[in-house]
């Protein structure tokens, strides 16, 4: 198998270490976005050349892949992940697989970003890369209207929240951005569409009258002295689940 892989790579003028570097980055981050950085530009272009080999490798692990050629990104989904726009698997794992754990602040922000993206999409306010501009002020207003909560007041916590969202490639933001500036603008990436389904968004807009987070009660601030419950989201998928009580 290794010899066959090396032979295929040789046809592309690449070596095994090139394939290894690509797979490690993809498995580690779960997403490669060409316009994120020069490193990801190189890796994405390499992925395009090796897409068939990458897909064969991931199929063995039952990992699904989404490749958006228009907006030039590739994202991985763990076995059993429910992904908008992709057919559901017949056999799903009994446990969580490799999933990203998001706290309630992060889940709330993802939901709001999805709602703002959908609004801009309807109004045709999307750039050629599929990005949508949103200000910090607009995000905070939308969070109050939809979820009856606000962004963290503490600047350090707020910065960590948006840094986490940037790591998931859901937003594009200057790492040196000041979160004390209400005029701060960021770009919401089209990947947000694969995080929150249209049904979930519709339920949210209706006022959260029903369970819109796949088994999680409407988001609320934790009681004083109690730890905030941790939420789980399928890595780069749309369904938010609550950890089972131990």
TrEMBL record:
Superkingdom as given in the UniProt entry: Bacteria
Protein name, UniProt field: DUF4194 domain-containing protein
Source species: Gynuella sunshinyii YC6258
